[in-house]
Write a structure and sequence with these properties.
The protein is of the alpha/beta class. It has 5 helices and 6 strands. Helix 2 packs across helix 4.
Length: 236
């Protein structure tokens, strides 16, 4: 995952300052043929590129709407794919409508013309990795991930079709997405180490001799008895 942070501090959602305890993740897509992150994230940090029209979401009400998500996935100005966090993960976003805003982290995948398999594969992979990351951060599993379309069917989000108008065009759906997140979580879960108990040693002193020859004689007798790790320690 290529994760960056550019919090939309001028958005009215951020200024509202309401927080949530994340209980799930909602996957969105933008619904516009514009894969460039600069369209939504601003200002330019040197990687994004300049949005000359100023239509990014770092304004109080982008396009006159109450909208704000926790992250965007799309293209940087050099064409590489990245994720930009745009709200604190535990801040209440304006992304799903309904009660999903109170429970879910929401992120947008920037759409292109929906027919480029290379672009889809790259942003799909980035989205899976973002969900793996967030699941680990908040103790979630793949079962806690839905798309906006599924949220609508559950009665917790507004009537949108994303992402099921796009994913099936490339042989994917939310079930395959959740399966890929599950695989990612399994791959990144380290095998617990078996705790080891440190060994304790108890030393037994068999005698103290002022004549070394007597000490040597005793050492030979002890080793002959099977205590091969016996030794002589000299002290004043």
């Amino acid at each position: 995952m290529n994760l960056h942070k550019q919090i939309l501090t001028q958005n009215a959602c951020y200024k509202a300052g309401k927080t949530i305890t994340p209980k799930g993740i909602m996957v969105h897509s933008t619904g516009a043929n514009n894969p460039w992150l600069e369209r939504y994230v601003g200002p330019d940090d040197g990687l994004l590129g300049v949005n000359a029209a100023g239509t990014h979401w770092n304004t109080p009400l982008p396009g006159g709407r109450q909208v704000c998500v926790h992250a965007f996935i799309g293209k940087l100005k050099d064409g590489t794919i990245a994720t930009y966090q745009t709200l604190p993960w535990n801040m209440r976003g304006w992304h799903g409508g309904g009660s999903s805003n109170d429970t879910h982290i929401g992120f947008e995948i920037c759409e292109d013309g929906l027919s480029d398999p290379a672009y889809f594969s790259a942003v799909y992979k980035e989205a899976v990795e973002l969900c793996v990351y967030l699941c680990k951060q908040y103790g979630l599993t793949e079962k806690n991930i839905i798309c906006h379309c599924e949220g609508c069917k559950l009665g917790i989000a507004s009537n949108h079709g994303d992402v099921m108008h796009w994913f099936p065009k490339h042989g994917k759906n939310m079930d395959t997405f959740r399966a890929d997140v599950k695989a990612g979580l399994s791959a990144e879960t380290p095998t617990p180490l078996t705790p080891t108990t440190p060994k304790k040693y108890y030393r037994v002193q068999l005698g103290a001799f002022s004549v070394k020859a007597n000490a040597d004689t005793m050492l030979k007798k002890i080793k002959a008895a099977g205590f091969t790790d016996a030794f002589i320690k000299y002290s004043e």
